[in-house]
Design brief:
Order of helices and strands: HHHH
Largest sheet: none
Helix content: 55-70%
Structural class: mainly alpha
Distance between the termini: 20 Å
Strand content: under 5%
Number of helices: 4
Length: 105
């Protein structure tokens, strides 16, 4: 979520423009944290929480409720495919680990 964080940070002080004809090469490096559903789920929730609280400054109860609803929808969505159903348990464990990390920091 580095791109989102950067866009929100820059957009708070500057006008962002969209160059529709621009082409960008995203040099994504492989890593074990990108193929393990548990690690991906944990990283996604921790990053979303960071953007919500630190970048957007949203930390009220309704904000956490919206995040919870989004995460529940995401979990329900992965049940639509056989691969998602197989990864559901590990994804749920990753989300639970993220919740513990968020609560303890």
């Amino acid at each position: 979520m580095e791109d989102l964080t950067l866009s929100l940070s820059v957009g708070s002080d500057w006008k962002l423009a969209n160059a529709r004809t621009a082409r960008i090469y995203h040099d994504s490096q492989p890593g074990s944290h990108k193929v393990d559903p548990e690690l991906v789920a944990e990283m996604q929730l921790v990053n979303r929480h960071y953007v919500m609280t630190k970048v957007l400054g949203r930390s009220a109860f309704p904000d956490y409720l919206k995040l919870l609803m989004f995460e529940c929808f995401s979990l329900a969505s992965i049940l639509q495919t056989p691969a998602g159903r197989m990864a559901f348990g590990r994804t749920l464990r990753g989300k639970a680990r993220a919740c513990r990390l968020i609560a303890t920091k």
